[in-house]
Amino acid sequence: MQNIFVTGGAGFIGCNFVRLLLAKYPDYRVIVYDKLTYAGRLENLQDVAAQYPDRYTFVQGDICDADKVNETFQRYDVDTVVNFAAESHVDRSILDPEAFLRTDVMGTYILLEAARKAGNLRYHQISTDEVYGHIHGDHKSVETDNLAPRSPYAASKASGDHFVNAYHITYGLPITISRGANNIGPFQYPEKVIPLFVTNALQDMRLPVYGDGQQMRDYQYVMDHCQGIDLVLHKGVIGESYNIGTGFEMTNLAMVEILLDELGKPRSLIQHVEDRQGHDRRYSLDVRKMLSLGWEPDYSPEEAIRATVRWYVDNRWWWEPIRSGEFQAYYDRVYSQRAVLPTAA
Ligand code: NAD
Ligand code: DAU
């Protein structure tokens, strides 16, 4: 493993993973391949470009562009593919499912086909706990559970997983898949709940909690997730999937209370609004397979939330220009027509 092709490396998790790879493996070269959608930002990697001019390369490209993918594989003698590239936000998938089908399904297929034709390159797929659907009772999702996605985003990611497995079974492509819980930390686009709520609160705007706020999520720190991906990439069993999360969920309301306390802002900023369509009430991962591989998270969900809040407080240079750009039209589209609930539903 030497020339690693990281798709979506200009996005939130991808840029943190690229930092980890370059710092940890002095003999690796990293080729970030990214379309630079609204979520992909070169400023996420500006320190990387300055620190590793000889081992880091950026190529702007679409994973759905087979010619460009093949040409980039050849030019940089790529031997490993890590696919982060995706449309990643559930609310956007409700507004515009087609973009998700295109990138998360078709784009995954194009990468798999390119990896197969290039001589069965090592391929790692970044997936999500959302492919299991919402989880009832005391169950925790294990990697062998049937996939039961419920949003257009989750359905696209689950289709991607099925194609990745099919390429392993049919063509012997050496694949692994990791399914991560909710990531939080530096460089997350402020459409996702925690950066949205922190940046709203810093501007004394209300925090739009969907429905009753009793939905359960496992908020994990992004660097813990990246360390898990690194471990699966290097030590995972070929053909297998791995759940990555803390294994501990909390309600969204509990998350908001920690966030407001860390900021020293009042609970009166909470505003319950009309729920997300088809909202998954609970995700819950069984992470014992990762623990047995030798991984464990450094951050509890509460520590991850507090560290994330502090990053946004300290890095206004990063999010203020975003909030005043494309983001504003998106925010109006999703939130301006949303009914405000009189009390907690
Ligand atoms: P993100 O939206 O921040 O970044 C996505 C990146 O992919 C951006 O840089 C974007 O420009 C790029 N991209 C989008 N379409 C592309 C295309 N057609 N060709 C090339 N590049 C393209 O997403 P993220 O939160 O960093 O998520 C990364 C991956 O991790 C995704 O596959 C997502 O499904 C998965 N995941 C995310 C989370 C989470 O909590 N954020 C949890 C589990 C899994
Ligand atoms: O679980 C992993 C997934 O986590 C990833 O695969 C996705 O890429 C990522 O976006 C995330 O999906 P969620 O839908 O769980 O994350 P989001 O930050 O959008 O929402 C988290 C919870 O907060 C969810 O229950 C919905 C709620 N929420 C979200 C927003 C944006 C609100 O209550 N209000 C909001 O304004």
Question: What do you see in this structure?
Answer:
The chain has 345 residues and is an alpha/beta fold. Helix content is 43%, strand content 15%. It has helices at residues 12-24, 46-51, 66-75, 90-95, 97-117, 152-171, 193-202, 222-235, 252-263, 288-292, 301-314, 316-323, 326-335; strands at 3-7, 29-34, 56-60, 80-83, 122-128, 175-180, 183-184, 207-210, 216-217, 220-221, 241-244, 250-251, 270-273. Strand 1, helix 1 and strand 2 (29-34) form a beta-alpha-beta unit. Helix 9 crosses helix 11 (301-314). The mean pLDDT is 97. The structure holds nicotinamide-adenine-dinucleotide (NAD) and 2'deoxy-thymidine-5'-diphospho-alpha-D-glucose.
Mean pLDDT: 97
Which distinct ligands sit in these coordinates? nicotinamide-adenine-dinucleotide, 2'deoxy-thymidine-5'-diphospho-alpha-D-glucose
Kindly estimate the percentage of residues that lie in beta strands according to DSSP. 15-25%
Number of helices: 13
Q: Write the H/E string, N to C.
A: EHEHEHEHHEHEEHEEEHEEHEHHHH
Task: Count every beta strand, where a strand is a DSSP E run of 2 or more residues.
Answer: 13
Oligomer designation: single chain
**For the CA atoms, what is the radius of gyration?**
19 Å
Largest sheet: 7 strands, parallel
- The appropriate CATH architecture of the domain at 3-184 and 221-244 is 3-Layer(aba) Sandwich
Name the poorly predicted regions.
none
Lateral strand order in the biggest sheet: 3-2-1-4-5-6-11
CATH topology of the domain at 3-184 and 221-244: Rossmann fold
Tell me the helix content: 40-55%
- Given helix and strand content, the structural type is alpha/beta
- Report how far the terminal alpha carbons are from each other: 52 Å
CATH class division of the domain at 3-184 and 221-244:
Alpha Beta
Q: What is the general shape?
A: globular
CATH H-level superfamily title of the domain at 3-184 and 221-244: NAD(P)-binding Rossmann-like Domain
